[in-house]
Amino acid sequence: MHGNWQSKHRERHIKMGVSSIFEVGNETIDTINVKSSSSLPCSLLVFSPTKKAPYPVLLFFHGFMLQPSWYKSLLQHISSHRYIIVAPQEVKTVQKIAEWLINNLKSVLPEKVQPDLEKVAISGHSKGGNTAFAVALDSSMPLKFSALLGIDPVAGCSPSCLRPPYVLEYIPRIFNQSIPVAVIGAGLSNQSTCCLLPSGAPNGVNHAEFFNESKPPCYYFLAKDYGHADMLQADGIMAILIRIMMKSGKGSKKSMRRAVGGIVVAFLKAYLEGQIDDLNEIVKSPNLAPIILDPVISIKD
User: How many helices (H) and strands (E) does the chain have?
Assistant: First the structure.
């Protein structure tokens, strides 16, 4: 009886912890704009906790024709759970950006904040997700990554029209990655708003194929009722264009950002910090998320 009570108490405690990752964390965050320089080929948007401590680092690539600032709420959510996030303005000079992170990231962070470059993950949305996979699979990178996340990644217009960097090979579990992978897909991203426009993430080049080619351990979460751009906070003319061009879900976009942010935090906690309870609980009980996740798949070996 006593052991059963302890087990139920621990389960309740874990579920409370899972709920908290879908909310903004307790850390105060600084948003830092870093300008390009002789050693940095493009500007960066950096999100950092402010308290004295070492923090893991997430390198994040934005989607095609998009801006890092449109992911601000999502990235602040993740950073508030004790992560430094670096979002480059351009994604064509990744090697130099990686070198800059190794040599110069600490210099732009709040005083006494330390980047833990032994705990680095890489992620991206849309075409940036494709870039994240390419970088993680590139053994020549000076920065070594411990986890990889694709947020509705896209490799091109169709299997016959892939865009560089070329990643997909259409062979199950072919990726030669030695690190864990999580893929978050959007269920409406393969649908277009009208017959004259392509979808944001067509079948054959989207989240499903990236997951299919990933080796274990790998995870798949499908935001069933949301579209390719529903985690963004675009403004002005681009917000109008995105609504015209991209199929969007009817649910709250804030809930979509909370769900994506919480999944990313759970995955980073699991594979950068060895705290896997939250990730396991989301896999076990997807209804803990603020949106419908269906399916959720975990392949561990």
Answer: 8, 11
